[in-house]
């Protein structure tokens, strides 16, 4: 029997249509990938199936879950369906679990509210489920709290509570977006295995084409609240009938055109020498001072003029700490950092303000990195605080103008407030803010990770163009290997505070030497590889 | 867990020592020599000097501090300059009124605030939410002495359910004593309940927007079940903080209400002692209050640890 069949689904939120005429079907033991950019309505579709739409929403059409029409059920009946017939996994494993209750308790709860099982029975099912998702008893007893677990482990707990009653349908909304590539690969394997063995239907919502390409049996591509194309995965990707499918595909695999090769031989822009960064650990025992945690361990590398260097590694490897040290936001415990040959910061010594103007940064979150009460004019001129004699009057105007036009915005945007811009535009403003002071180096810390693929492709083009025209160097920090591969000349691979491998980007990715790099490259979902593989 | 508690206990003991030092030194610089005050204006200087020796006022500062502390540790607060009785007796008489009054008011405030805050948060922007918000706004705005007088007018003067003031003593029995404390407790509780209800509401609203609440709903819990099982405990931390602060405030801050109801409580004792320059009583009341605040802070810390396992960390 069909697990899920949606037809003619329409959802309005406060008389604003967010979904129109959605038709989707899913068979048991199959995986349906729902792909789209933010605002395409993919999460709204999932929430419609869960019947957990936000306040003020109205829906019409038909949603049949294993033959039952959801529209005919009242709220108490829907509560019985949720968790028993349909389970859901969410994007953010760090916050999806209640921090004050044990993992066993939370998995057992699904069982207890639906079956009236005793506490003991429920806990034994919870134990079985945690074992099933790869959290064995010796390391993950039921009485552990979520804060003891990593993101991937928490996502396994969320999966365990979603599948505890073996629902017919599992909805996974961006289940691996917040996870590292190797963890992502493990979670995707687990989901695939569960679907095949338990004969569940899986609706996998993602923005990442490479993830669905390797996993889904069929795909629905959504845009602006409608399904633009749907069908078997391979067929969709082969034919690419719809222009949006083609656009999405090419944006995902986009490699910006980089004209010029960096010149070597000159003095490097940035030289990081034997940098050490220790953190004081919290005291566990009143009388024993814990040893410091070495987050960055004897790291050395250089960046030449106009060179784009990538820094990759999984969360907790120390890449953000290294970035903070390079930006002199934190003091060093050893080594020094030179900018254009001058010591910028070294152990026990703070940064030199004039040098600080030569290095700028763009952060990940285009929403949180601006003061909402300032106009763009003031936001982009902020770095001028670093120089002793900032430009004024007409000179200042022309600098603002130039920075904004460089990043593809209009001069008139200077008088707007930040909320008037989209995520991609905000990231352009962040780049303009970095550019205005004409730095030699820009640190891009996950600068495109929060953007949709089509916007990401545009920002990558912009960055590549700027680097060519202005002779800029980038330190490009990302967990996303495909992006790093697209934009950098050289790459550093970091693990446990150390650089384990570095070299020409293409060489490292084609022929990784260090076992860790091999693991990373193998775990990264690849669109071409998934499509080239024989049909399963 | 033990490490956390030990750490808290150590830092609280240090605050207690620091507070005792500050109190002692402040009392030293306050103008007015207790001995000459006690002997009156026309006292013989020799007699004053003799009294100073008797009171130990002529000893060096550090010695007097140590003497005071060691006395405190043995429950000896010294002799009141004006009443000529042990301060510990004076305080004990008052504590048996102030402490039950505080607990009574706090219980009332919690009993009102929790349901009101939960109701308002779970039905946000509904009529019940708006009425709770309106009522609490009023509760914070109304001066509590005025409210106390209204209570007296309505329930004591007109309805004659309660007496207008005074305290029969615990010897008169538990219920008569509680009855005498009821109106003052209500008057004290009203603004506290209003503040607490608002804190409860906003804390709960924050929690209801957390991701794990959506997870709970996706498991099949109804809105009410999800609120009870997952939101309440998480929302409790800020509420506990406020309750702790309120306790310390009520213990001595009830002076106006004590005056309205003629209750011989700690606040009035402190006030009288200040006007009579009975520094030893002032000092004792203040150190006692500091001690109470520190004990309550420790209890609140314990409650945090009970409510939130992240504070317990792992045992090493």
Automatic annotation (TrEMBL), chain A:
It comes from the Bacteria. It is found in: Cell inner membrane. Signal peptide: none annotated. Its main location: membrane. It is a peripheral membrane protein. GO terms for molecular function: ATP binding. The keyword Manganese does not apply. Residues 4-249, 270-521 form the ABC transporter domain. Keywords: ATP-binding, Nucleotide-binding, Transport. The keyword Cell inner membrane does not apply. Pfam families: ABC_tran (PF00005), oligo_HPY (PF08352). InterPro entries: AAA+_ATPase, ABC_transp_ATP-bind, ABC_transporter-like_ATP-bd, ABC_transporter-like_CS, Oligopep_ABC_C, P-loop_NTPase. Belongs to the ABC transporter superfamily. This is Dipeptide ABC transporter ATP-binding protein. The lineage of its organism: Bacteria, Pseudomonadati, Pseudomonadota, Alphaproteobacteria, Hyphomicrobiales.
Automatic annotation (TrEMBL), chain B:
InterPro entries: BPD_transp_1_N (IPR045621), MetI-like (IPR000515), MetI-like_sf (IPR035906). PROSITE patterns: ABC_TM1 (PS50928). The chain crosses the membrane at residues 12-30, 101-121, 142-162, 174-197, 235-257, 285-307. It is found in: Cell membrane. Pfam families: BPD_transp_1, BPD_transp_1_N. Its main location: membrane. The keyword Membrane applies. SUPFAM superfamilies: MetI-like (SSF161098). Keywords: Cell membrane, Membrane, Transmembrane, Transmembrane helix, Transport. Gene3D superfamilies: MetI-like (1.10.3720.10). Residues 95-300 form the ABC transmembrane type-1 domain. It is a multi-pass membrane protein. Belongs to the binding-protein-dependent transport system permease family. This is ABC transporter permease subunit. It comes from Hoeflea alexandrii.
């Amino acid at each position: 029997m069909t697990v899920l069949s949606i037809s003619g689904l329409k959802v309005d939120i406060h008389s604003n249509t967010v979904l129109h005429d959605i038709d989707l079907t899913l068979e048991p033991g199959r995986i349906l990938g729902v792909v789209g950019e933010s605002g395409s309505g993919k999460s709204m579709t999932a929430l419609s199936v869960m019947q957990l739409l936000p306040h003020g929403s109205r829906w019409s059409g038909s949603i049949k879950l294993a033959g039952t029409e959801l529209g005919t059920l009242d709220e108490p009946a829907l509560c019985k369906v949720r968790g028993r017939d349909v389970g859901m996994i969410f994007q953010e494993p760090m916050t999806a679990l209640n921090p004050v209750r044990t993992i066993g308790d939370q998995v057992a709860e699904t069982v207890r509210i639906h079956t009236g099982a005793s506490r003991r029975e429920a806990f034994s099912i919870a134990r079985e489920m945690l074992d099933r998702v790869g959290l064995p008893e010796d390391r993950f007893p039921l009485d552990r709290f979520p804060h003891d677990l990593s993101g991937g482990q928490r996502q396994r707990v969320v999966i365990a509570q979603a599948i505890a009653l073996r629902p017919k349908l599992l909805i996974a909304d961006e289940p691996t977006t917040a996870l590292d590539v190797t963890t992502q690969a493990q979670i995707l394997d687990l989901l695939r295995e569960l679907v095949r063995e338990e004969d569940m239907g899986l609706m996998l919502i993602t923005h990442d084409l490479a993830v669905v390409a390797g996993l889904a049996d069929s795909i629905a591509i959504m845009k602006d609240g409608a399904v633009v194309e749907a069908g078997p995965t391979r067929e969709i990707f082969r034919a690419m009938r719809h222009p949006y499918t083609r656009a999405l595909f090419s944006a995902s695999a986009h490699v910006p055109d980089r004209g010029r090769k960096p010149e070597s031989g000159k003095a490097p822009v940035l030289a990081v020498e034997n940098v050490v960064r220790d953190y004081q650990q919290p005291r566990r025992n009143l009388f024993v001072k814990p040893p410091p945690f070495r987050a960055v361990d004897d790291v050395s590398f250089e960046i030449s003029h106009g060179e784009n260097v990538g820094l990759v590694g999984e969360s907790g490897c120390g890449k953000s700490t290294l970035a903070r040290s390079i930006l002199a936001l934190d003091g060093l415990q050893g080594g020094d950092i030179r900018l254009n040959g001058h010591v910028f910061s070294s152990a026990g010594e703070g940064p030199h303000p004039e040098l600080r103007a030569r290095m700028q940064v763009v952060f990940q979150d285009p929403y949180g990195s601006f003061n909402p009460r300032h106009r763009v004019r003031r936001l982009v001129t902020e770095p001028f605080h670093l120089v002793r004699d900032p430009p004024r009057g007409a000179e200042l105007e022309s600098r603002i103008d130039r920075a904004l036009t460089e990043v593809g915005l209009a001069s008139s945007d200077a008088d707007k407030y930040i909320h008037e811009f989209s995520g991609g535009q905000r990231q352009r403003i962040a780049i303009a803010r970095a550019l205005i002071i004409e730095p030699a180096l820009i640190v891009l810390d996950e600068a495109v990770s929060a953007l949709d693929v089509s916007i990401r492709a545009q920002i990558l083009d912009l960055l590549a163009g700027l680097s060519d025209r202005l002779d800029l160097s980038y330190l490009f920090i990302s967990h996303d290997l495909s992006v790093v591969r697209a934009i950098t000349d050289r790459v550093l691979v970091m693990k446990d505070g150390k650089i384990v491998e570095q070299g020409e980007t293409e060489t490292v990715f084609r022929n990784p030497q260090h076992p860790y790099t091999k693991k990373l490259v193998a775990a990264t979902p690849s669109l071409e590889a998934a499509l080239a593989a024989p049909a399963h | 867990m033990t490490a956390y508690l030990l750490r808290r206990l150590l830092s609280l003991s240090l605050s207690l020592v620091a507070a005792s030092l500050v109190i002692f030194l402040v009392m030293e610089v306050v103008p007015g020599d207790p001995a000459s005050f006690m002997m009156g204006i026309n006292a013989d200087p020799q007699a004053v000097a003799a009294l100073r020796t008797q009171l130990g006022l002529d000893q060096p500062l550090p010695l007097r501090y140590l003497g005071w502390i060691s006395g405190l540790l043995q429950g000896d607060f010294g002799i009141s300059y004006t009443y000529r009785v042990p301060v510990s007796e004076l305080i004990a008489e008052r504590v048996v009124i102030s402490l039950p009054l505080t607990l009574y008011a706090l219980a009332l405030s919690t009993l009102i605030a929790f349901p009101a805050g939960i109701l308002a948060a779970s039905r946000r922007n509904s009529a019940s939410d708006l009425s709770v918000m309106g009522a609490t706004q009023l509760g914070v705005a109304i001066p509590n002495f005025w409210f106390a007088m209204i209570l007296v007018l309505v329930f004591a003067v007109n309805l004659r359910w309660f007496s207008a003031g005074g305290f029969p003593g615990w010897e008169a029995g538990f219920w008569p004593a509680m009855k005498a404390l009821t109106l003052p407790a209500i008057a004290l509780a009203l603004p506290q309940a209003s503040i607490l209800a608002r804190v409860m509401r906003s804390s709960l609203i924050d929690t209801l927007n957390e991701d794990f609440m959506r997870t709970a709903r996706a498991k099949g819990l109804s809105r009410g079940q999800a609120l009870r099982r997952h939101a309440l405990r998480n929302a409790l931390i800020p509420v506990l903080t406020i309750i702790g602060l309120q306790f310390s405030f009520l213990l001595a801050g009830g002076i106006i209400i004590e005056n309205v109801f003629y209750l011989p409580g700690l606040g009035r004792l402190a006030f009288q002692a200040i006007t009579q320059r009975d520094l030893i009583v002032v000092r004792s009341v203040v150190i006692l209050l500091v001690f109470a605040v520190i004990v309550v802070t420790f209890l609140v810390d314990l409650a945090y640890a009970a409510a939130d396992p992240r504070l317990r960390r792992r045992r090493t």
